[in-house]
Every structure is written in structure tokens, then in C-alpha cells.
Amino acid sequence: MDAPASPPDVEVLRPHAEQQFAGELAALRATDDRPRPANWLLSPWAVVTYLLGGTVGEHLITPKYVGSRRLIEVAVATIATDRALLLLGVPGTAKSWVSEHLSAAISGSSTLLIQGTAGTAEETIRYGWNYARLLAEGPTEGALVPSPIMTAMRTGAIARVEELTRIPSDVQDALITVLSEKSLPVPELGTEVQARPGFNVIATANDRDRGVNELSAALRRRFNTVVLPLPAGVEEEVRIVAGRVADLGGSLDLPSATDAVAEIRRVVTVFRELRTGATEDGRTSLKVPSGSLSTAEAISVVIGGLALAAHFGDGILRAADVAGGIVGAVVKDPVADRIAWTEYLEAAVRPREEWRDFYRACREVTG
Ligand SMILES: Nc1ncnc2c1ncn2[C@@H]1O[C@H](COP(=O)(O)OP(=O)(O)OP(=O)(O)O)[C@@H](O)[C@H]1O
Ligand SMILES: [Mg+2]
């Protein structure tokens, strides 16, 4: 396997995990003396440390995933077996994020990726042809366009399949041979590609989508499923949002989020209360809006607020900067969600003495 990718030469908007964290990956690699599965860049133990954070020697490894260690251990252990990994969960629970970091840590590359859609065809999973060359040369190795899965099989790397259950079932089934026989036949050339050790698949699926039921039983048996939960408590969720906001804000040149924690806590509280249908003290029950109100959306609301504060305010994140974003996230359906939101404002927000500014700001944008 090649060494992990180095940072890109020119500035890019979003470096891949293996580029952004090349330093951490190199530090882990340098000190990792535990056994590694064939073609893995790191031992399973070091992969878990990369995801959850820690220190190796003098090097600080930042936590990428905040949550249960056991869950990540199960995910990593699965990839070391001959079973593929399915990360399942409601929107915004870091399924894609974890999948990207796992493949970056294990194979040094997170880019062998298939984005599943209703239009994903079998060639996307198996291989296609360069038609100009196919016409000129006939079916040859040179005319074949390998899929990310085929490339991963050849190199012994991890391939990622995003939103597996959006792919039509008959197309999904192209994965069965790959996962059980570890082979991809190419009848046109009379050959096959046999997977090298280290090859595996990490798929993600959203259990709110119409969906996971459409995963055929035959395919489901080839996967171990790990369910990524919503953050357990307010503090954990605040930590996730603050961490990601600091990271994203830095790359967007936004003001530092350190003095924004109080406002972040408020956004997270609103999201959690509406998601669960009850205020934090459990005294008032609330209508649950239709949107997912995920951690990922809370991150977007805060980033949007910071941009407002930076460009049109005094650089400090205030209630008025996040109010618009919150209303946008909550009111997806103009009738039912608006009712839920207005009731929430009156029943839960208004009575809170120290939330006056927030109530006023929300009222202003709600109309
Ligand atoms: N437990 C967590 N630890 C760290 N980051 C998290 C956690 N939960 C959510 N996030 C953050 O939320 C953002 C969204 O995550 P991601 O896009 O991976 O979600 P997803 O589960 O793939 O959602 P979708 O189903 O919509 O595709 C990421 O920036 C990630 O950092
Ligand atoms: Mg995703």
C-alpha cells in the first residue's frame, strides 16, 4: 500500500480526511507496533485511536467521532473480517463521516466512493467501457473502465458505498458476488478480478429514507450492521457541534467559535427538545416537526450564524444570527411545522427569563 496522501499542493475547499489529517496518520503509523491485517496501514487499535482521539508520543490525535468506543471497535473489527460494514442511522449521525475516516485510516484513501442513487447502474458497481476504445480495439483491458469497487479489489483497499438503500435492489445485488466470492468476473475478457487482502466495503444507509427494507436478505447477510445513534446528551452534542464549527469556521475564515458556546448550547437545546417532543425538564410536551433536526443541521445553523455575525455584525454570535437558520431547519412544512414551531416558542421559549433575546429574534423572523 502507498503511504497516506500528503496535503494538497493548492488550497482546496475541503481536503479529504487522509489529506487533512496526514500528520496524525503519519504519527500513528510511526508508533504503531501492533499487528496489522494484510494491506492495512494501521492496526485496528490505531484506527480506533485515530477516530476517537488520544495521544501518541508527543502527538495529539483529535477526536473525529464523539460517541461510544465500543461501537467504533465493532465497526473496525468487522472490517478486519470477511464481512462488510453497514453504517445505519437517522440523518446527520456521522455515517458518511465515520466511513470516510475509517477508509482514510485503514487504506490511506477515502475516495474509492460510489454515491448511491435511484439512477445508479450496474456498471457503476462493476465496470464500464471507454466506448471510443471499445469500438476501435474491441473489449480489451485498456478499454475497460474499472469501478471504485474494482479498483479497491485490485489494490486491497476499502471501497465506500454511500446511501446503499437508494440503489435499486437488482443493482445492489451486483455486490453479492463481490462480497461473497471476493471476485468480479469480466466475461467480455474471459477474466475476473480477485480481491486482494485488505479489500472490504463500507456502506451507509439512512433509516429515514424509504429503504433499508429494500436491502435484499441475501445482501444483508453479507453485512454487519452498526447503528450510529443520536448524541446521548446535550453536552455531548454541544461538543460535537462546537468541534465541527471550529474546524469548518477555520477553513472558511470565520471568527473563532470559542465565545459562541452559550449560543451553540441554545441551538442544540432547541433541536433536542423539538426532536424528542418534550422540554429538557420534561414538564412540557411539544409537537415534533417533520424535519430531522440532526446534529449536522445544528452545525449548519451555527456556521450560517457565524457568517452573519462576521460579515454583518460585530463578530460575536448572537440570537439574531441563528434565529433565521433555526426557523429554516424547523419549518419544512409551511403549515404543520409552523404550528409546532409557534407553539414551541410560546410554551417553552417565552417563559425562559434568560432567553428573552432569543424569543424576540425568533418572533421577528417567524412573523
Ligand atoms: N457523534 C458525532 N461525532 C462527531 N461528529 C458528528 C457526530 N454526529 C454528527 N457529526 C457531524 O455531523 C456532520 C454530518 O455527518 P454526516 O454527513 O456523516 O451524516 P450522515 O449520517 O451521513 O447523514 P445522512 O444520512 O444525511 O447522509 C459531520 O460533519 C459530523 O462531523
Ligand atoms: Mg451521509
From TrEMBL:
Region forming the signal peptide: none
Annotated InterPro entries: ATPase_dyneun-rel_AAA, CbbQ/NirQ/NorQ/GpvN, P-loop_NTPase
Entry's Gene Ontology molecular function annotations: ATP binding; ATP hydrolysis activity
Entries under SUPFAM superfamilies matching the protein: P-loop containing nucleoside triphosphate hydrolases
Domain ATPase dynein-related AAA: 85-223
Stated name of the protein: AAA family ATPase
Originating organism: Nakamurella flavida
